[in-house]
Amino acid sequence: MQPQPVAGAPEIHRNFIGGEWVDARSGAAFEDIDPATGEVVGVFPRSGPEEVRRAVAAAREAFPSWSRTPAPVRGEILHRASLLLRAEKEEIARLMTREMGKVLVETRGDVQEGIDTALYQASEGRRLFGITTPSELRDKFAMTVRMPVGVAALITPWNFPIAIPSWKIFPALLCGNTVVFKPASDTPACAARLVALLAKAGVPPGVVNLVYGTGGEAGAALVSEPGVDLISFTGSSAVGSAIAETGARLHKKVSLEMGGKNGQIVMDDADLSLAVEGALWGAFGTTGQRCTATSRIIVHKKVVKEFTETLVARAQALRIGNGLDPRTQMGPLINEAAREKVHRYVRIGIDEGAKLLCGGASHEEGECTRGFFYKPTIFTDGDPKMRIAQEEIFGPVTLILPVDDLDQAIAVHNATRYGLSSSIYTRDVNQAFRAICDIEAGITYINGPTIGAEAHLPFGGIKETGNGHREGGTAVIDIFTEWKTVYIDYSGKLQKAQIDTPDPGGDGDNSAGKPNG
Ligand code: UN1
């Protein structure tokens, strides 16, 4: 049982290991803070290697039985989870807004993404397709089946506290893996809800374990734990590289989803008001704290003046405040460190010679004095080589880069080390297809902003954004399964591939006196 809260006091939480809510042995704890008000939402255990080891042991113990549970049955449990998420959607959305600040409309969308993923992955329980293919030999059958990988360590960020854990936990379970989940320490309360809900949906003890703590302690212990077979991580490129190094050394499968510096191209034939609408949502939705956020807007010189004026006016009119207020359009940043980082980048941009058009400062009016608010910030006259054009800021800051034509727009777009999301606004089908082919990114939107991924399509990026994997849709199944190739020889004799294979150009016998190959 979770401990019962004392009225008015922040709730004290525990880890979830082997189907039980348990205290961390160290007794150390951290607070979950509402970034709009500074209030404490809950108190959570700061776990170390000992808790991690117990959680991994519980996941290992649960693996044989869970991996043998038929996939359609595992899928049905996810279906039940989707119904529970739907029933609790509003409550979880409100908790999420309190815990990490984004506005209610968006936190509802976040939970919805979890529901969509649960439904999609539930249905995968009755597919999980392998392939069958002819053998080159007579009386021999060839096919592939998918096998679970084992114990999956899932490390998630705070910006999508239900959606991103769902992208990982649901397919991991559907494929027959057991899980140790280490959520970001800025959003532990949503993680508790999700795990409690999975247990209620029928996930057996030990199949999903939850360990709270910092990345440096619990996260680092988890990735180097020998009982972990697979690590799936979403977060910064620096942490991702460190995880990949450890994973390589310890022979673990590693799937990484990291930074972005996503660009929206606006051509001179674009529907400008639509392009402004898209940029506003792409740059300032979730207070710019998405890996898919529009942090560069590459605009044709013929329309850059009109586009910029409208965008700046719209950004300045955004209503900033507590996300629980339905009138609020943009909530706070996640914490003070994030606000300092954003402001540091603003100063870097000014020093580099970009022109600050609006924002560039904390927002401390009215009720906002107690939270980590920052004004929507737009730079123009950017150069693609500037640090603010190259580095992920993860806040409400975007940079306008004027260009002469499509070729230059695509070149500027591609001149970063990241490759997650991208977008182009144009009415010209030829230009749109050029962009689809030539933009270096995992996702390209035509006449839509850089954010808005759907649960049943692949999500992920190229270059330093990822390491070759995709989440979402069927693509995620490749992360959470290993292929088993099966040959069934029913000829009753030894048949040697490549050697006994009938040779249509020869005498039908490759083996007698002929060199092989
Ligand atoms: C992220 O920013 O980490 O496409 C994920 C989107 C969301 C997911 C973003 N559906 O913006």
Give structural attributes:
single chain; 517 residues; alpha/beta; Aldehyde Dehydrogenase, Chain A, domain 1; 2 domains; 15 helices
Structural features, described:
With 517 residues, this protein is an alpha/beta fold. It folds into 2 domains: 14-258 and 471-479, Aldehyde Dehydrogenase, Chain A, domain 1, CATH 3.40.605.10; 262-455, Aldehyde Dehydrogenase, Chain A, domain 2 (3-Layer(aba) Sandwich), CATH 3.40.309. It has 15 helices and 22 strands. The protein has helices spanning 49-68, 71-87, 89-100, 104-124, 163-174, 188-201, 215-223, 237-249, 272-284, 301-316, 336-352, 387-390, 406-414, 429-438, 475-480; strands spanning 11-12, 15-17, 20-22, 29-33, 40-45, 132-134, 140-148, 151-155, 178-182, 208-210, 230-234, 253-257, 262-266, 294-300, 355-358, 377-380, 397-403, 418-419, 421-425, 443-446, 462-463, 481-489. A 7-stranded mixed sheet has the order 15-16-17-14-13-19-20, sandwiched between helices. Strands 10-9-8-11-12 form a 5-stranded parallel sheet, with helices on both faces. A hairpin with a 2-residue loop joins β2 and β3 (20-22). α3 packs across α4 (104-124) and α4 packs parallel to α5 (163-174). The longest helix is centred in the N-terminal third of the chain and has 21 residues, at 104-124. The protein is globular and about 80 Å long. Residues 512-517 have low confidence and may be disordered. Bound molecules: 2-aminohexanedioic acid.
